Amino acid sequence: MTVGRCTHSLDIGDDVVVKRYTSWGRGEPQREWEALTLLAEHAPGLAPAPVEAALDAHPPMIVMSRLPGRVLRGQHATGEQVQAMAAALRRLHQIPIEVVEDVEPAPWGPAAAVAKTRAWARKQPDLGADPLVLEAFRAGVAWLASTAPDQLVTNPLPPVLGLADGNRANYLWDDHERRVRLIDWEDSGRSDRAFELGEVTEHISRIDGALDAEQLLDHIDLTPGEAERVLGFRRLIALGWFLQLGPDGPATAHNPVGTLERLGERVLHLLG
């Protein structure tokens, strides 16, 4: 849920992309290189292929294949594109458990999200005077004070490899092959499938364009228990972004006017 952080620069060639990291304190180059290498073996074609890396350089650098297509952020995702996103996620989450268990945990996950969202709520952010927004804040604070968020922290299901970032700019639509590929693996790691689905359905990038979250989830085979966990994470992620959208909030400057009110409606909808 990092806001306004520029972590890299890109040199885009005809066949390859050179990524140079401007910050790497959380091991971003190593995470991305490990993920790309693992994906090349277990899900080839789903992500850029690794070409070469200088992980100990200053700055660190990775060279990867260039993929065709355009990012889905800012787009009104069609039914075909939503189905292709689901297919990409299903393939990603089918990487063998024994492989995923050897991957480092992603830095952004359930425990971090619960702690950060509760911390934002405790700050009593200035969200203005809109009645709907204030109702959403009260409902969100009440939910955060319940035991429901704590129950999300422990994953009863096998882990998956995840992007740990629901930004739709990480989803690349290929018009020619009619498929979606995944890019930007610097925050990736071992993750919780329900959390990953909560991230992609409720990340604030959904404000740019449109994504039918229910349609996406309909294309993913979820057990009733997993569907309930996904709903819990959707509430958590949406609320986390909502709490950062007041006049002085760190997410406000990056989003169009009216985003706070739209997310207030979203929070109330998800909380039922």
Descriptive report:
- The chain is of the alpha+beta class.
- The protein has one domain (68-271): Alpha-Beta Complex (Aminoglycoside 3'-phosphotransferase, Chain: A, domain 2), CATH 3.90.1200.10.
- Helix content is 42%, strand content 14%.
- It has ten helices and nine strands.
- The chain has helices at residues 28-42, 79-92, 97-100, 110-122, 131-145, 148-153, 193-202, 213-218, 224-242, 259-271, and strands spanning 8-12, 16-21, 50-54, 61-65, 70-71, 160-162, 171-174, 179-182, 189-191.
- The protein has a four-stranded antiparallel beta sheet, covered by helices on one side. A three-stranded antiparallel beta sheet has the order 5-7-8. The protein has a two-stranded antiparallel sheet with strand order 6-9.
- Helix 4 (110-122) runs parallel beside helix 9 and helix 7 crosses helix 9.
- The longest helix is centred in the last third of the chain and has 19 residues, at 224-242.
- The two termini are 24 Å apart.
- The mean pLDDT is 95.
- Pfam families: APH.
- Residues 15-218 form the Aminoglycoside phosphotransferase domain.
- InterPro entries: AGP_Transferase, Aminoglycoside_PTrfase, Kinase-like_dom_sf.
- This is Aminoglycoside phosphotransferase domain-containing protein.
